[in-house]
Amino acid sequence: MPLRLSPKVLLIDPVRMLPSLLLPLVGVLFVGGFSAHSYGWAALGVGGTVVFAIIRWATFSYEILGDRLETKRSLISRSVRTIPLERIRGVDVSTPPLHRLLGLTVLKIDTGASGGDEEAELDGITPEEAERLKSVLLRRAPRPEAQVSEVAVPQERVIIGVPRKWLLYGPLSGAYLLTPFALAGGAVGLVFQWGDDLGLDQDTAWSAGEWIWDHPYLLVAVAVLLVLAMPFVGGLMYAVFNWDFKLKHRDGYLVAERGLINRRSVSLESARVRGYEIVDGLAERWAGVVRAWAIVTGLGDSETRGQLLPDVPRTVAYQVTAEAIGSSQAELRRHPHVARNRRLFRAVFPWAVLAVASAAGIWATGMILWWVLLVVALLLAGVGIPLGLDRYRSLGHGYDGVRVAVRSGSLRRSHAVIERRAVVGWRLRQTWFQRRAGVLTLIAGVGAGKGGYSAIDVSVAQGAAFPAEVTPEWLAPFLASHGTPPAS
To answer: Which key words are in the record (predicted)?
Structure first.
């Protein structure tokens, strides 16, 4: 029979609508001069929001019918969405703060057919109902309706529980370090958005800008404070998102659970996992820690939903990925020395050009600004040398008979390991500069993850031999047509 969301969700919907109603309500009160009539209109608006929430709750239902899930909404026109269970690629369960207070959860269903958006969402069900639905939705075999409520408890095994002391690695992750600047930018945006309602007109903003321009040391002080706050605020946000991170194997699925304020559980079907990607930055590499993502077919929002591990020690990451997905025994092969020269050239040449231009400016004008640019350019050119060498050392590709591995990058180094069966094609790409240098980029086309993983600046011989080694059967018809026996 059709089921409804928990009635407790009626306590959440009006609260979530308040931000969008705040400005109109304040405007009504100001226009009405805070009279009894203005309060009446404001109360009517709040009451209308509550009534709308009740109607939305009363007109929504969901039901599992054999091999499909149906959600129905009949507000003005009747809308029915049908999702075959065999298309479901993942089920996410999260508990935002308000839901946690009321003992509710949000269940999102992903079929891999809608990009980064979920296919369906049940916002406001009990944790017990979420677990029941999760067990049913992630089963491929259709079950009779009479047995839906009697689903056996799936077996679960914890692969790793990330210790809380490892959350101290959070400030090494570059994305979280920018949190203070993002918060400051958001605050400025809110001021511009609500400026008129707060009595801040254009003239006031212009006057404030002129005052700040006359006191530049304040901008410098704010910038310094934001920089000093980067490791603390970034580390705090990292801990909030990755608190009590657990990776489990449950009934044929990899389940990643994390979060302090909003607890989230993401299920990835093991049969659709085609490999993994291990990523680190310069600071993470110096500390010996990495992050890991699963490479999964048909997964929307893979950058968030595919995360297997936050920052953990490198040895732990390889142990976990080997246990959860499979180990790679491939020894990465070096790329030709011309690839090193290209890395050095690209890291140094732009700053060398700036240094030459600055020297010309000094000779022509003698301005102090050119001296500053010259010093900065020379420093960056000097830093570019070890950076270019590190980028070359990071290049590599390999094959162990089961999995293909490619690695590249320095500021963000990525080591992707993909199952051979996931490779659906090869692409050779060669720019004009690569053609003159005698190298090319070999891309393994994969029907999962990013869709392709590149071995950058391999030699022409490597670019021809590596696909023949990994997928020799693809070349056999061409070799046979020329009278050459296929490779064994």
So the answer is: Membrane, Transmembrane, Transmembrane helix
The number of residues making up the chain comes to 488
Residue 131 CA to residue 151 CA, distance in Å, equals 10
Q: Which of 111, 98, 104 is nearest to 5 (CA)?
A: 104
The burial class, CB within 10 Å (0-12 / 13-18 / 19+), for 18 is: exposed
253 close to 268: Cβ distance less than 8 angstroms: yes
**pTM to 2 decimals?**
0.77
Name 444's Cβ contacts closer than 8 Å, sequence gap at least 6. 404, 406, 418, 423, 426, 452, 453, 454, 455, 470
DSSP for 236-278, please give it: HHHHHHHTT-EEEEETTEEEEEE-SSSEEEEEEEGGGEEEEEE
The 3-state secondary structure of 321-365 reads: HHHHCCCCCCCCECCCHHHHHHHHHHHHHHHHHHHHHHHHHHHHC
Backbone angles phi, psi at 446, to 5 degrees: -130, 135
pLDDT digits (tens, 9 = 90+) for 408-455: 999 899 999 999 999 999 999 999 999 999 999 999 999 877 889 999
**Rounded Cα–Cα distance for residues 423 and 404 (Å):** 9
- On the 0-12 / 13-18 / 19+ scale of CB atoms within 10 A, 219 is exposed
Number of Cβ atoms within 10 Å of the Cβ of 394: 20
How far is residue 209's CA from residue 82's CA, in Å, rounded to a whole number?
Answer: 55
Four-CA torsion 26, 30, 34, 35, nearest 10 degrees: -120
68-74 and 78-84: which strand pairing?
antiparallel
Q: Sign of torsion, CA 78 84 85 87?
A: negative
DSSP state, residue 186: H
Express each pLDDT in 301-360 by its tens digit: 667 788 999 999 999 999 999 999 998 888 999 999 999 999 999 999 999 999 999 999
| In contact, 68 and 25? CB cutoff 8 Å | no
Residue spans per domain, the chain = 7-153, 164-242, 337-394, 396-488
Q: Which two tokens stand for residue 358?
A: 């600055």
Backbone CA torsion sign across 475, 478, 482, 486: positive
Nearest to 317 by CA among 286, 280, 270, 354: 280
